Amino acid sequence: MSSSPLFAPELAELAQAHLLRQRREVSPLLPPADLLPDQEHVRGTTYLINGQSRLSFGSNDYLGLSQHPALILAAQQAAARYGVGATASPSVCGHSPSHEALELELAAMVGLPRAVSFVSGYMANVGVIPALVGRGDAVFSDALNHACLIDGARLSRADVQVVPHGDLAALDAALQASTARRKLVLTDAVFSMDGNIADIPALLALCERHDAWLMVDDAHGFGVLGEHGEGTLAHWGIAGRGGIQPGWQGRLHRLIYMATLGKAAGVAGAFVAGEPTLVDWLVQRARTYMFATAAPAMLTEAVRAGLRVIQEEGGRREHLAQLRHRLRTGLKLQPAWRLLPSETAIQPLIIGSNADALAVMDHLDRQGLWVPAIRPPTVPSGTARLRISLSAAHTLEHVDALCKALSEAV
Q: Which of 170, 264, 355, 394 registers the highest number of CB atoms within 10 A of its CB?
């Protein structure tokens, strides 16, 4: 055994490859207490990062709700009523009236019959997938799926086939060739590092043809897409606040829908929605639901307040679309750079090498801007990028400042 300190050589290799991850101390730089309602956009954009003020384009707070006064007040009031901990798993005594109300409201918002809440999106996926499939079954996973879908598939012990990103023909052929007892297709709805939207109708059609299930992870679409922020199903006209849309009734028994509550919803947690028997089965068999302490009711009440803001304040999504247009029309790219097409708040700027991506990130940091460089293994080798994340809390002037700083980066 090596006499070197534990993992020292491996850490040195990561540093040499410009792959060493660094944590930073980050806290929001809050505006004055007498903030006027029409000034709320300054919340959630500026942070103290390692003690330095930075305008951030790095968070998933797409609607700027993490600092919204209504959500903060809801959490404070719930803490006074319920306390700050759930004290046990949902099946023991952790399922409060707040949890029950939230699940009903989430199901109604996405237009599906039932929903069950989890403490996080990662916990949802690594618990749900093994509850659905196991040995003798087959999982078909898009090559760019998030790590929690990948890990859930591995934990299931089913046969896992990785399908080229967005390749419906390859998926069709793989499903056709499979003789597995159960078949489960996994996909992000909005791909977290590319910002593109999966073709959910086409995927559901393939699942119907080959007697498979489809599990959709809508972490980055829920709250952002759809007329009322219902998510990617509403974006495709499948289901939403008005329920399941004509032509889709009786066809969604193959769908397992998951979305997170720590991004556009501004708080924390996740939920899975679908047929009543699906939800009943997950309550009985999803180990990360059965054996994990439930989320505190102070968080579920904050989420409930966030759902009301998402559905009632459509101007936040309209402003987000204006920001996206401003960025895409105002950005002057270096010859080797590439801005990926995206209709979402995620705007990936491909730089190329790990070192170059870090250098551009450092340049922006010196200009008072925080935009994280994303490197392998999160993204494929040679595609290191800046993941520009827009928020409704940003202003057009914020985006102009980012465009100017990027145009000056060499």
A: 264
State how far the alpha carbon of 96 is from the alpha carbons of 8, 108, 305, 408, in Å. 46, 19, 16, 53
Question: What's the burial of 155, exposed, middle or buried (CB within 10 Å: 0-12/13-18/19+)?
Answer: middle
Give DSSP secondary structure letters for 109-127: HHT-SEEEEES-HHHHHHH
Distance CA 355, CA 333 (A): 18
Residue range 23-56+314-407, CATH number: 3.90.1150.10
Dig out the tokens for 300 from the structure. 């579920």
* CB-CB contact of 256 with 274 (8 Å): yes
Token duo for residue 28 = 């929001």
Strands 183-188 and 138-142, bridge-based pairing: parallel
State pTM to two decimals.
0.92
**C-alpha pair distances (Å), 402 with each of 15, 35, 187, 379, 395:** 28, 25, 31, 23, 11
Whether the ω angle into residue 5 lies within 30 degrees of 0, i.e. cis, is no
Which token pair is 115? 């929903």
Parse the chain into domains and list their residue ranges.
23-56+314-407, 72-312
pLDDT for 68-119, tens place per residue? 999 999 999 999 999 999 999 999 999 999 999 999 999 999 999 999 999 9
The 3-state DSSP class for residue 397 equals helix
- Amino acid identity of residue 370, one-letter, is W
177, β-bridge pairs:
none
| pLDDT confidence bin for 23, thresholds 50/70/90 | confident
Render pLDDT for 29-51 as a digit per residue (tens, 0 to 9). 765 554 444 444 446 788 888 88
User: In angstroms, what CA-CA distances link 103 with 22, 41, 198, 279, 343?
Assistant: 36, 29, 25, 11, 28
Kind plus residue range of the DSSP H or E element containing 188: strand 183-188
d(CA 275, CA 214): 13
CATH class of 72-312: alpha beta
Q: Which two tokens stand for residue 38?
A: 């029409």
- How is residue 249 written in tokens? 């009734």
